[in-house]
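seq:
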Amino acid sequence: MNSLISDTVSDMSTIERAVVMGSVASGKSTFAERLATTMELPLVHIDQIYQDRPANSYPVMPDRPVIAEAAKDKWVIEGNGFSEHIGPNYRLERADAIFIFDIHPLLSLANHIARSRRIGKGLELPVGGYNGKRALKWYIPYCLFRCPEGINRMLEASQIIGKEATVFTKTKDAFEWLDKQS
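struct:
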C-alpha cells in the first residue's frame, strides 16, 4: 500500500525553496540531502543551528538564523522547529514545496532508539545535526505527543496559507517518490 497521501509537486524543476519536516527518525534528513543534491540547492538542517542549545530553550524573539535562511532565494530547510520562535509559518509561506513525514509515533520512537544505539556504537554517523546527546526522557514525549501535534499544526497552517503538502506515512515511499522525480 502506498503511503503517499498527496503529491503536490508537479514539476521538481520549479522548486527553489523546500521545507522538509515531520516525525523523528523518519528519514527527513536523508531525504532533504538527496533533494538538495538533486535540485542543486543549499541545505540547512535546523538541528545543526540549535545543536548546542538545551531542548525547548528557544529565545523569546523570533530566531534570526532560521528566518534569515528562509529569507534567501534558494534552499532546502530540514527540521521541525514547530515553535513560533523559529518561524515555521514563514518557512511554509516562502516554500515552493512542503514535504511532511508523518510516520506512526511509536515507530518514530523505535527508530530513534535504534539510531541512537547505532550512533553510540559508532556504526552510524549522525545525519542532519542530530548529535545523540538528548536524553530519552526528552524524546519519549516529543515523539509520542509534541511532534504529532506539531505536524498537525503545520498541515493546518499550510492549508490556511493555501499550500498543500506532500505527505509521506512510510519512509520508503518518500525515497521511491524522489527516485521517480529524478
